[in-house]
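Quick one: structure for this chain?
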Amino acid sequence: MAVEIKKIVQGDQDAFRILYNQYNVAMYNTCLRMLGHEEDATDALQETFIKVFQNIGKLENEALLAAWIKRICVNTCLQILEKKKKIRWEDIDHSPVLLNLNDESEIVDEEAHELNMRRLQEAILQLPEKYRVVLTMYAVEDYSHEEIGKSLGIATATSRSQYMRAKQKLYELLKKNENYVRPLEILHPGA
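Got it. Here's what it folds into:
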């Protein structure tokens, strides 16, 4: 069922419910990946849709609705993280980040792949916030390092460094579980 923005602007609760049902799961997953806690993710999701509801009349191009909602969601998560003031960004240093994915075998088994994805999600939630936020924005939400740097007030090189460190930390977390088949090739390998 298509979302009718005009009806939402006019206050039609059914139209807003359709919009919410269409996007809430994806936005909740984004919130959870960025914030790392279910309670925070639920709060961020609620704030996101309040902002969507309050500002949907300002959306000029309905074709951009999904991207507009995602941008509001990510910005809401960043505001929550800023309020917590827990993230300390590290500047890039000259220590190497070692990651070898060349000897991994192909995933054929869908069940194993699903299990691996759950383990990857669990490992992402174990990352320090500074790693998790950059990794989520870059690898999952498809922001560039330049956009991440601007959004977080950090250097582009710091974003790249945090992303590489996040990948390394994920690799280490996943390597602890010997049943994990292919730890990181789904993430942008050439960051």
